[in-house]
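Hey, resending since the last one bounced:
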Amino acid sequence: MAQPKSSLVDQPSLTNTQGLRAAFLVTSLVLVLEAVGGVLTGSVALLADAGHMLTDAGALGIALFAARISLRPRNAQKSFGYGRAEILGALANGLLLGGVSVAIAFESFERLGSPRPVAAGPMIAIATVGLCANLVSARFLSRTSKKNLNVRAALLHVIGDALASITAIGAGIAMLLWDIRSADATAGLVIALLLVANAFRLVRDSVDILLEGAPGHLDLRKIAGEVCQVPGVMAIHDLHIWTVSEGFLAMSAHVDLEPGANPEPVRRAVHRLLHQDYDIVHTTIQTEEAPGLLSIETNPE
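The structure tokens again:
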């Protein structure tokens, strides 16, 4: 019989929602300030930063909603729980970020051809306030971002906006001191490029999890070799490892036993190895009596 093992690791932390909520409130307040400031100063860089702030607020809202759904308990229909809601939220954020970057790039290219007058002083002041707000939000989110892709997606939005604010400040200084009118549109273009890079990483990581690809930091052949060193194991085949949700890895495999080996101690030993050395918290191991040559299947097909 298989030995399913599970852990509370797959249950998202309430701390995630607390950081997201705080970041959402800060971002929403600064969004209003930058949007009004962009209109009054005529700065495309500031409007681009406000547009990014709008996506930040939307991204944080999506992340907060997904995090709350993921807190729902498992049931008979959703035996793995709702952890994938956070991955879907991260994917939505990546696509949103990519769309906004395209819009900003188009507007910036347009203004490069015909620069418009910008009130550089107020632009610098408002962008500075935005930068401070982003740093505060990033501090809230950084506490849990390493263990949660959804929070990390929100953090990337905030970091991208902090860089956008710095770029807008630099453009304002260039216009104020040296009257470089194209600096505003150039800054908008730089912001768009930053957003594209972040969007690509988010979409790639989210899709990889949704397609149940093996985690990139794990070597299935190496793991299979170590399992074969467990006393009583002759071979392993049909090995699959995938990510259910961020921080919750699952594994299934068939293990061929050596003649006379006791299945239950072997299953426990294999699970202990996978849990302690690779942080795989859910294992389904089927033991088989028939001996055979080592066969390692790393292709989910």
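Residues 220-288 form a domain with the Dihydrodipicolinate Reductase; domain 2 fold (CATH 3.30.360.10).

Sorry for the duplicate.
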